[in-house]
Design goal:
This protein is an alpha/beta fold. The protein is built from 10 helices and 11 strands. The chain has 2 domains: 2-137 and 290-306, Aspartate/ornithine carbamoyltransferase (Rossmann fold); 140-289, Aspartate/ornithine carbamoyltransferase (Rossmann fold, 3-Layer(aba) Sandwich), CATH 3.40.50.1370. Helices cover 36% and strands 16% of the residues. The chain binds phosphoric acid mono(formamide)ester (CP). The site of phosphoric acid mono(formamide)ester has 9 residues, from helix 2. Heterododecamer (2C3:3R2) of six catalytic PyrB chains organized as two trimers (C3), and six regulatory PyrI chains organized as three dimers (R2). Belongs to the aspartate/ornithine carbamoyltransferase superfamily. ATCase family.
């Protein structure tokens, strides 16, 4: 992976931990340039993208589609429900097929953590792999759009006080963000139920009660409670989670004037955040969705350059 003429060039984009700080800053700068009409992309030939989603998605799937169309790529329609996956075809063979058809980029969301490793190690698969989420592993395009949103607001990461709140152990968003935010100089706090915290996260920040840090925070990064990844019943009712760990109006009122609230969405309204706060003045939840299109344009451009 490298940066060419100020633009990032990647073979694949599968994990934030595989990117250098320069590549991260290059991608979010390029995303911002696309957003503000300071960048254009002229395809050198006809390019094809396939979006292979084996888990549900609205934002990631559709914003990759919009990003690809804005860059002038042709989209290869793929529906996991009607594909040969239903005849037992493996993910590897599905991607090998896409590569053989001449697809340049495969964006993949799949429930298996690290599914991408065998794909990027294969000599036969020639298309770029972009990870749209692997189980509870990584979600690098979400992380990059989160970083772009924070950078748009503050212009730096060093010294920012950021709380990542909630269902940490099940969240690929949390895992993608904690390592890179620490690497970029932010001070991290983790809040939420102890049962959704792992001591593995201690190297990145401290687990604290949200009420102990709320007045100091620059960024409140809420996480969705991932009911579909919980083995059994959670020990919290919606109301109990909201009052102990969620962003209520009372906590919102304690935030600094220039603090911002983020959530990758979909939002469980009145659980992680009070319903009426989703579009409150300090919320950047809608801005995150918009930024997703532009940072994904930067990602697709980077892998097309990397494979040129
Ligand atoms: N934030 C996010 O990944 O949303 P989707 O599951 O809708 O793609």
């Amino acid at each position: 992976m490298s940066i060419l003429n100020g633009q990032v060039s990647l073979q694949n984009l599968v994990s934030m931990e595989w990117l250098t700080n320069e590549e991260v800053l290059g991608l979010i700068t390029r995303g911002s340039d696309f957003k503000n009409n300071r960048a254009t992309f002229t395809p050198q030939r006809q390019y094809f993208a396939a979006n292979l989603f084996f888990e549900s998605s609205t934002r990631t799937h559709k914003s990759f589609e919009v990003a690809e169309m804005k860059l002038g790529l042709d989209l290869v329609d793929f529906d996991a429900k009607t594909s040969s996956v239903n005849k037992g075809e493996t993910l590897y063979d599905t991607v090998l097929t896409m590569s053989a058809l001449g697809t340049d980029v495969c964006v993949i969301r799949h429930p298996d953590v690290d599914y991408y490793k065998e794909l990027v190690e294969s000599d036969s698969i020639r298309c770029a792999i972009v990870n749209g989420g692997d189980g509870s592993g990584q979600h690098p395009s979400q992380s990059l759009l989160d970083l772009m949103t924070i950078y748009e607001e503050f212009g730096y990461f060093e010294g920012l006080k950021i709380a990542i709140c909630g269902d940490l152990t099940h969240s690929r968003v949390a895992k993608s963000n904690m390592e890179i935010l620490k690497r970029l100089g932010a001070t991290l706090y983790f809040t939420g139920p102890a049962e959704w915290y792992s001591s593995e996260f201690d190297v990145y920040g401290r687990h604290v009660a949200i009420d102990d840090v709320i007045t100091e925070l620059d960024v409140v990064m809420l996480l969705r409670v991932q009911h579909e990844r919980h083995d059994g019943e959670t020990s919290f009712s919606k109301e109990a989670y909201n009052s102990q760990f969620g962003l209520t109006q009372a906590r919102y009122d304690l935030l600094k004037d220039n603090a911002i609230v983020m959530h990758p969405a979909p939002v469980n309204r009145d659980v992680e955040i009070d319903d009426h706060l989703v579009e409150a003045p300090k919320s950047r939840i809608v801005a995150q969705m918009t930024n997703g299109v532009f940072v994904r344009m930067a990602i697709i451009e980077a892998v097309l350059q990397g494979r040129a």
